[in-house]
Amino acid sequence: MSAQSDNWIDIAALDAVPQRGARLIKTAHGCVAVFRTGIDEVYALDNACPHKNGPLADGIVHGKAVTCPLHNWVISLETGAAQGADTGQVATYPAKVVDGRIQIDASLLTHRGVA
Amino acid sequence: MTQKLVVIGAGMASGRVLEHLFEANADYYVTLFNAEARGNYNRIMLSPVLSGEKTYDDIVTHNAEWYTTQGVTCHFGTPITSIDRAAKTVTSTEGTVPYDKLLIATGSAPFIIPVPGKDLDGVVTYRDLDDTNAMIDAAKSGGKAVVIGGGLLGLEAAAGLAERGMDVTVLHLMGHLMERQLDEAAGFLLRRDLEKRGITVKCQASTTAILGTTRVEAVLLDDGETLDADLVVMAVGIRPETRLATDAGLSVARGVEVNAQMETSDPDIIAIGECVEFDGQLFGLVAPLYDQAKVVAKTLMGVPDVFTPKELSTKLKVTGCDLFSAGDFAEAEGREDIVFRDPARGVYRRLVLEDNIVVGAVMYGDTADSNWFFGLIRDKTDISDMRETLIYGPAFQGGAPSDPLSAVAALPRDVEICGCNGICKGQIEDAVHAGATDLGAVRAVTKASGSCGTCTGLVEQVLAVTLGDEFIAPAAASICGCTDMTHEDVRRMIKSRELKSMPAVWQECGWKTSCGCHICRPALNFYLLADWPMEYTDDPQSRFINERKHANIQKDGTFSVVPRMWGGITTPDELRAIADAADKFAVPTVKVTGGQRIDLLGVKGEDLPAIWEDLNNAGMVSGHAYSKGLRTVKTCVGTDHCRFGTQDSTGLGIKLEKTLWGSWTPHKLKLGVSGCPRNCAEATCKDIGIVCVDSGYQISIGGAAGMDVRETEPLCQVKTEAEVIDVVKAVTQLYRENAKYLDRIYKWVAKVGLDWVKESVADLDKRTALKARFEHSQTVYRKDPWAQHVAKSETYRPLADLTLEAAE
């Protein structure tokens, strides 16, 4: 995470995203999915599966991964990489929880993600 | 000086005695007489020979070469006619031979019921290879076979003959099959499985005569019924073959009486096997015979040893009928039962306890844990600490993992694995360490699983545990990579251990991941809400997106919206509201579905609550076109308009849809109601179909018209609409409670059997209870999810919109 700045944008309360679920953020570059895991970690990824652009925010979240609802590709929330035999990667963005609020790195507004 | 040993009978018991003697280099010159024209073979395996799974060559244990190598003088096909104890000689058709020690191993003779016609051609017994070959020959021309006797031998004969294409009927005198080994419930399951393979079973059937002039033609029963027969197999029992011993003046009761050293009343004459009686007991299974063989060999070598009868267990060697029984399971004062039934899988387990000790066990359908239970009986283990979970077997004791391999790994070295040959786990481990690294090698070295073969799986598990990574064990299909358990295992755990939350299942069933995956979570969510509708709260995050958002996701991430049209009936007002909604939300495609309603395709996810609200306001609710639950009830116009209609099919369809909607099922559930047998609603390719006839309603289930196409099978016919609704609710609930997630009704029925489903809904008590449980669940789930989600439309909108934020 060396590339990240100190410039964080407050997005919403953590509770606005269900555990093992996701919500969308609209940006000028397209939709970003904010995921919350079963143990309240948050991750931000482009909302498009590397396979056929499936809406990852609509997938089932398990552990630190999400399964795309269209064709069951499993994507790592940490790296954005497709798991198992599938290959491909989704852009990820730094995200964190501070005092019960979700914050996303402002770089999200200016350029594509770190991955 | 070398002594002369004469052996009468070359069966499994005497064969084992000779092996022990030669292994110990005992100083005997052996002469062997056998009435059968061959040496020793594995008599237990005659059933696989009969069914065609094995040949005689596969089951020979001692061939001519073996006898020659060991210096045995053999007289095969030469019966002994008399014993002269004073002169210490035996006389056969070929002459007289002297002995120092005589071993009587004459085995047993089949019991022939004394009815007219018992000597006709085509009446055979089932005892040796000649009998088996006679049956195989008879089966070549097909025809009908009647097997008299529903015990072990009779059923194995019946299964073998059926396998060879004969039309087989089993006659059994008692009320249920194998009554000495099984209780009624297990006897019933066995009967059902045999009937499934086309064998007719008649209990309480007493044979009066066998009819025919030169050959058998029929069997006459005492109730006057006549059964045609081209072959009759008598398998009603055996009696010890004691004629020689009786003639020689030895002490004979039911069998030749022996002491614990296996000596008869004449100490120079020893007896073994099925012909002996010890302490009032007769012996018909191989395991005690092998124990006797050890003692006989010791006695012959002058080494003291004592024969002690052990607890015995029984398994039936009919492929597909897994049963096990051991100990004493008769009901008696002070005895208690623990019973477990899983009708869906045809599993029955019963343990009989007395003073916290298991004294008997009967298992049917799943005998994987039989050795463990047998160990409890044999060792008289105090089970008070594990009583509550005892019936579930070793995997559920002491928090041990449920992996069967771990259970095997945990067994002590002295646990007997192969009951026939008395081989313990330790001996198998030693053999593996000495280089026997596959089943064949272990079998060759230790004889484990080499006799009846039912312990083969267990021997393989010991091999797997001992070899570790070098062994690749065939794995049963588990739900997914998160668990080793099957769907059936998990459903059973959820019910029996009252697991009411997902974390409880993960914990108790040893999930290997923190919170499951996209395969197991939807299944668990369904199992939990189906079994515990009040206690468990549905988890949207464990549902596929369609069921979470109550709409069908399309390939571009948009959704389709299908409002319900009860029974396919709509109104101009509803159609206007649908048209208005399509305009307002710029719906690109409007399509009429096969389920008699209208699909609005291409709605954006964030617009869903708004379009639902409009449709709700026009009186419409979700059509659940996306759910593993009730989809549609397709109807024809019935008596309202049609000149052929016999009943109000439309009205019944609407009633059914209004009572079933909102219910979750293992897979989607589609119904059809046709007003007459012309079947315009195509009811006979639905999961549940109703065809109206003049006299009432024909209900059938298990149709499909997707990847598989199949016609429904009749479930029952009823007279009133109210009965139709009751039956449909009951069968739906049965399906909800028992099926594997994502099995349509036809797949489920193929697993549990239509007969069981029929019985369950035909039994009025069961039907009422199923219906009540369905209704109970519907009090929670018969609600419009669209209306509920309109109230939380916030969650359908983006969390934040940063498109207008200035970029730095």
From TrEMBL, chain A:
Q: What InterPro entries is this protein classified in?
A: Rieske-like_NirD, Rieske_2Fe-2S, Rieske_2Fe-2S_sf
Gene3D superfamilies given in the database record: Rieske [2Fe-2S] iron-sulphur domain
Q: Which GO terms describe its molecular function?
A: 2 iron, 2 sulfur cluster binding; metal ion binding; nitrite reductase [NAD(P)H] activity
Q: Tell me which Pfam families the record gives.
A: Rieske_2
Keywords per UniProt: 2Fe-2S, Iron, Iron-sulfur, Metal-binding, Nitrate assimilation, Oxidoreductase
Q: Report the protein name in the record.
A: Assimilatory nitrite reductase (NAD(P)H) small subunit
User: Ranges for the Rieske domain?
Assistant: 8-104
Q: Which PANTHER family match?
A: 3-PHENYLPROPIONATE_CINNAMIC ACID DIOXYGENASE FERREDOXIN SUBUNIT, FERREDOXIN-RELATED
Task: Specify whether Iron is a keyword of the entry.
Answer: yes
Highest taxon of source: Bacteria
Biological processes, Gene Ontology terms: nitrate assimilation
TrEMBL record, chain B:
- What are the residue boundaries of the NADH-rubredoxin oxidoreductase C-terminal domain, all occurrences included? 313-381
Q: Which cofactor does it need?
A: [2Fe-2S] cluster; FAD; siroheme; [4Fe-4S] cluster
Q: Which InterPro entries match?
A: BFD-like_2Fe2S-bd_dom (IPR007419), BFD-like_2Fe2S-bd_dom_sf (IPR041854), FAD/NAD-bd_sf (IPR036188), FAD/NAD-binding_dom (IPR023753), FAD/NAD-linked_Rdtase_dimer_sf (IPR016156), NasD-like (IPR052034), NiRdtase/SiRdtase_haem-b_fer (IPR005117), Nit/Sulf_reduc_fer-like_dom_sf (IPR036136)
How many cofactor units bind, and how? Binds 1 siroheme per subunit. Binds 1 [4Fe-4S] cluster per subunit.
Q: Where does siroheme bind?
A: C680
**Span of domain Nitrite/Sulfite reductase ferredoxin-like:** 553-617
**Where does the Nitrite/sulphite reductase 4Fe-4S domain start and stop, copy by copy?**
628-761
Positions that bind [4Fe-4S] cluster: C636, C642, C676, C680
Pfam families linked to this entry? Fer2_BFD (PF04324), NIR_SIR (PF01077), NIR_SIR_ferr (PF03460), Pyr_redox_2 (PF07992), Rubredoxin_C (PF18267)
Report what the protein is called: Assimilatory nitrite reductase (NAD(P)H) large subunit
FAD/NAD(P)-binding domain segment(s): 4-276
Q: Which GO terms describe its biological process?
A: nitrate assimilation
Q: Name one GO molecular function term.
A: heme binding
Q: Would you identify the family this protein belongs to, as annotated?
A: Belongs to the nitrite and sulfite reductase 4Fe-4S domain family.
Sequence ranges assigned to domain BFD-like [2Fe-2S]-binding in this UniProt record: 417-464, 479-528
Q: Which PROSITE patterns match?
A: NIR_SIR (PS00365)
**This protein's UniProt keywords:** 2Fe-2S, 4Fe-4S, FAD, Flavoprotein, Heme, Iron, Iron-sulfur, Metal-binding, Nitrate assimilation, Oxidoreductase
Q: In which pathway does it act?
A: Nitrogen metabolism; nitrate reduction (assimilation)
